[in-house]
C-alpha cells in the first residue's frame, strides 16, 4: 500500500502525511490537518496532540468502527465497510453553511495503512493512547522513541465466549493483566460449572466483573460473548471518550459500576439533543441518528451491546429498520 509520507522533520523529528487533499503534520504540542476547500481556499484545523492520538488509536484499533468516529467537532471518519470517508467540517453545521467543509472517500486499506503509520510515528516512548491519563506518560515534545507495542495492541475478541475451549482466555497476572488500581475490591472468584456429560464445551460461565477489573485499556469495547450478530462488548471507562461516536445503528449501554455522563447530539449537525447521566444499574440506548461522547469521573464498567449485522445499516438507510430502539 502506497502511503504518501515525508522524511522526518529536521528539528521536530516527525514525518508528515498526505491523504488525498488532506495534509497531516504534528509539532511538539499539536496535530495540524490542512486542506483546500472546493473553491480553492486554504484551511487548517488544530488538535491537541494527545487528544488526536487517542482518537487515532481508536480509529485504527476499531477498524473505523460502526459509523462515525469524530475526532472532535470538525474532523473524523465514516465507515462504509469497504471504503472510509475522511471529512473536515462536513458534519459541523457552521462550516457546512460556510462552504469550507471537505469530504473525500478512500479505500479502507489506504486510509487504514496511512493512519497506522502516522500513529506509530507520532506516538513517543512512554505514551500509550489506550491508557487512562493517570496511567501513561506525556504525548508532547519532539520525536523520542516509539511505543509500537502499545499502538499495535490487538483487541481481545471472543469467538463464542471468553474462557471457552479454544477461545479467548481469561485475564490473569501471568498474561500481563493485573487488577487495575480502581478495582482492587472486585472479587476474582469464578462460578462453579457442572455441565452434563457431553456438554462440557457447550455450557460456560465466567466472572465478567473480574475479567473487566483486569483491563489495561480504557474506552475500548471488546467481544466477550458472540451469538450470531449479537455482540456483548463490555469495557472500562476513565476520563473522556476520546472520540464522539456517531451511530449508524442503535447501541445499547448498561452501566455496571460507578457512573458516566453522556453528551448526545444529532450526528449530522452536532445540535445538542440530551445530557444523560448513567449510574450503576442504569440502561440506555443511543438512537441511530445521534452522536455521543462520555465522561467517566472514575474508572467504571460499561456493557455495550452491539447488533453487528452487516445489513443493518443499509436496512436503516432504506427505512426497513428503525433508527430508535423501540416505538411506543
List the helices and strands and how they pair.
Elements: E1 4-5, E2 17-19, E3 22-26, E4 30-36, E5 42-48, H1 49-61, E6 68-70, E7 75-79, E8 83-88, H2 93-98, E9 102-107, H3 108-122, H4 148-151, H5 208-213, E10 225-227, E11 230-240, E12 244-246, E13 251-255, E14 259-266, E15 272-279, E16 283-286, E17 290-307, H6 312-317
Antiparallel strand pairs: 1-2, 2-3, 3-4, 4-5, 6-7, 6-12, 7-8, 8-9, 10-11, 11-17, 12-17, 13-16, 13-17, 14-15, 14-17
Helix pairs in contact: 1-3
Polypeptide structure, described:
This protein is of the alpha+beta class. Helix content is 15%, strand content 32%. It has 6 helices and 17 strands. The protein has helices spanning 49-61, 93-98, 108-122, 148-151, 208-213, 312-317; strands at 4-5, 17-19, 22-26, 30-36, 42-48, 68-70, 75-79, 83-88, 102-107, 225-227, 230-240, 244-246, 251-255, 259-266, 272-279, 283-286, 290-307. The strands form 2 sheets. Strands 6, 7, 8, 9, 10, 11, 12, 13, 14, 15, 16 and 17 form a 12-stranded antiparallel beta sheet that branches. Strand 6 (68-70) and strand 7 (75-79) form a beta hairpin. It is globular, with a radius of gyration of 21 Å. The relative contact order is 0.12.
Amino acid at each position: 500500500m502506497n502511503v504518501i509520507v515525508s522524511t522526518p522533520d529536521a528539528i521536530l523529528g516527525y514525518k508528515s502525511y498526505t491523504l488525498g487533499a488532506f495534509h497531516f503534520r504534528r509539532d511538539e504540542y499539536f496535530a495540524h490537518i490542512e486542506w483546500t476547500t472546493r473553491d480553492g481556499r486554504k484551511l487548517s484545523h488544530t488538535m491537541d496532540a494527545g487528544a488526536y492520538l487517542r482518537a487515532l488509536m481508536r480509529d485504527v484499533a476499531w477498524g473505523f468502527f460502526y459509523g462515525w468516529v469524530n475526532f472532535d467537532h470538525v474532523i473524523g471518519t465514516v465507515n462504509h465497510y469497504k471504503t472510509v470517508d475522511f471529512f473536515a467540517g462536513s458534519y459541523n453545521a457552521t462550516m457546512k453553511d460556510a462552504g469550507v467543509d471537505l469530504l473525500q472517500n478512500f479505500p479502507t486499506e489506504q486510509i487504514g495503512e496511512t493512519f497506522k503509520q502516522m500513529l506509530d510515528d507520532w506516538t513517543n516512548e512512554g505514551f500509550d493512547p489506550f491508557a487512562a491519563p493517570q496511567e501513561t506518560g506525556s504525548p508532547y515534545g519532539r520525536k523520542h522513541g516509539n511505543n509500537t507495542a502499545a499502538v499495535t495492541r490487538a483487541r481481545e475478541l471472543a469467538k463464542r465466549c471468553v474462557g471457552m475451549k479454544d477461545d479467548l482466555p481469561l485475564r490473569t497476572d501471568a498474561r500481563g493483566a493485573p487488577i487495575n488500581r480502581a478495582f482492587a475490591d472486585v472479587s476474582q472468584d469464578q462460578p462453579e460449572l457442572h455441565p452434563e456429560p457431553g456438554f462440557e464445551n457447550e455450557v460456560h460461565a465466567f466472572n465478567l466483573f473480574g475479567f473487566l477489573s483486569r483491563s489495561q485499556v480504557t474506552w475500548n469495547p471488546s467481544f466477550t460473548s458472540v451469538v450470531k450478530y449479537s455482540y456483548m462488548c463490555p469495557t472500562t471507562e476513565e476520563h473522556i471518550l476520546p472520540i464522539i461516536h456517531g451511530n449508524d445503528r442503535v447501541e445499547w449501554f448498561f452501566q455496571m459500576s460507578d457512573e458516566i455522563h453522556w453528551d448526545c447530539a444529532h450526528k449530522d449537525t452536532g445540535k445538542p439533543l440530551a445530557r444523560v447521566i448513567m449510574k450503576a444499574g442504569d440502561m440506555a440506548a443511543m438512537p441511530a441518528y445521534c452522536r455521543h461522547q462520555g465522561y467517566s469521573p472514575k474508572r467504571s464498567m460499561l456493557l455495550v451491546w452491539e447488533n453487528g449485522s452487516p445489513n443493518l445499516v443499509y436496512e436503516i438507510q432504506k427505512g426497513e429498520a428503525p433508527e430508535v430502539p423501540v416505538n411506543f
